[in-house]
Write a structure and sequence with these properties.
Helix content: 25-40%
Number of domains: 1
Order of helices and strands: EEHHHEEEHEHEE
Strand content: 25-35%
Structural class: alpha+beta
CATH superfamily: Gcn5-related N-acetyltransferase (GNAT)
CATH architecture: 3-Layer(aba) Sandwich
CATH topology: Aminopeptidase
């Protein structure tokens, strides 16, 4: 499968703030670790679905090295004193089925409600379609209502996980005529 490239995009959010949306790079490691440190415990729990006190640096390096072959990673950045800050990210990991991937998204608390999550997920959906994927899915905590509302707005179906009542599965077909294009 031919990996697609993602063109850098400058976005103006609902509240007027501007972010740069671009592909995740290996050189983003330090900024991703800083972004993790800025997440409060509840946000970490919602993202990782368990208590995570410290970042797994080895796992992060492996993840970054796997792009673009085994997935798509996008980040939203803003200028900062040390160069940039990552204020949002989204991932799509491709497993054994090259036509499908599992998504995740993280938005810094101070950017919640600004439309950044929608913009990140819309960009990820577009990148997945461009890469030829036909389905995206994600496992979301049932109590993560902001993510579930976002998934519904983006056309994902939400269904119970038969093995775990604390989570739901959000799934979206990308290849059907009814899979409307999502843009930011």
């Amino acid at each position: 499968m031919m990996p697609s490239t993602f063109a850098d995009t400058e976005l103006t959010l609902r509240d007027g703030r501007r972010v740069q949306l671009r592909a995740m790079r290996r050189s983003d490691e330090d900024e991703i670790l800083q972004a993790f440190e800025r997440l409060d415990p509840e946000a970490r729990y919602m993202r990782f679905m368990r208590v995570v006190r410290e970042a797994d640096v080895a796992k992060l390096r492996k993840l970054l090295a796997s792009f673009p072959d085994s997935g798509i990673g996008l980040v939203a950045t803003v200028p900062a004193a040390d160069g940039i800050d990552i204020v949002g990210s989204t991932l799509l990991m491709i497993g054994n089925d090259p036509a499908s991937g599992e998504f995740s998204v993280t938005v810094a608390a101070e950017y919640g409600g600004s439309g950044l999550g929608h913009a990140l997920m819309s960009a990820l959906i577009g990148a997945a379609k461009a890469r030829g994927l036909t389905e995206m899915e994600g496992v979301v905590l049932r109590v993560n209502t902001p993510m579930l509302r976002l998934a519904e707005r983006l056309g994902f179906t939400i269904s119970a996980d038969p093995d775990d009542p604390s989570v739901v599965i959000c799934r979206r077909r990308l290849d059907s005529p009814s899979a409307r294009s999502s843009t930011h």
